[in-house]
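note to self: dont lose this again. the chain is below, predicted strucutre after it. 96 aa total, dont forget to put it in the shared folder this time
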Amino acid sequence: MTLQYDIIIRPVVTEKTNIQKEAANQVTFEVDRKANRIEVRRAIERIFNVRVTNVRTMQVRGKFKRRGRVLGKRRDWKKAIVTLRPGERIEFFEGV
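---
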């Protein structure tokens, strides 16, 4: 079994995720590609000491990018959208 800190890689902070955080109490994370929903749920609950209602995961394909004649590809990654119980919050960059 892997550690919960190996499962959760980083929070995804964009305009869309900020709207989801305020409107639906959902937080988005980049997670390990081999992790399943149950492992993600346990890791979030242990690390942040919150209760999780629902976890949705999806594979994000890396985009092809070009620099002049050189064609490259961004890496593939897995995203997890975690819905928290009402009243629960995870604070990342509050007051910055």
